[in-house]
Write a structure and sequence with these properties.
Length: 170
């Protein structure tokens, strides 16, 4: 039987505890899980692609999961998945709004390659509100992001905010 390879794509800017939950659970579904760190021109990244890949690699290493690797890509997801010989795309869902977007993406991806299945994993209830965009906003306004990211990612974020400058007066 062929090795079952999955892709968990995202910008991971930054990687959150919600992402970690999906990585741990997604890794149980496949023989090998590739975390595909990508760019998204519609998002305003705080970290470069190289910094995000290094951050995700460090976090994955800390999880101690042997069948997970990290690769950067800047291409159509389905082309990247084909190049990696993947048969599964893993996506995390937090809320109904996520489902609507992800459902549409899964349908488009199926039109491109119907041999690659999309698997949706619901985030743990305690992690469902976490979104990288909101974590960045909280950090930029000087709020505590410790409940949403690992200690190492928190340090990365604090250092980056010191470089960028905090927003607001409070």
């Amino acid at each position: 039987m062929a090795e079952r390879i999955g892709i968990y794509p995202g910008t991971f800017d930054p990687i959150t505890l919600g992402h970690a939950d999906i990585i741990r659970r997604g890794a149980k579904l496949v023989d090998r899980l590739i975390i595909g760190v990508t760019t998204n021109p519609s998002k305003n990244p705080m970290f470069t692609p190289e910094e995000r890949m290094a951050m995700v690699r460090r976090e994955v290493e800390d999880y101690g999961i042997g069948n997970v690797s990290v690769t950067g890509f800047n291409a159509l997801l389905m082309k990247f998945a084909e190049k990696q010989n993947a048969s599964v795309i893993v996506r995390g869902l937090r809320a109904v709004a996520d489902f609507e977007y992800e459902y549409q993406m899964a349908g488009m991806n199926q039109q491109i390659n119907d041999n690659i299945e999309t698997v949706f994993l619901m985030a743990d209830v305690s992690l469902q509100p976490i979104a990288s965009r909101l974590v960045k906003e909280i950090a930029l306004f000087g709020g505590d992001i410790a409940p949403f990211v690992s200690a190492a990612v928190r340090s990365d974020m604090v250092a980056r905010v010191e470089t960028l400058g905090r927003l607001g007066d409070y």
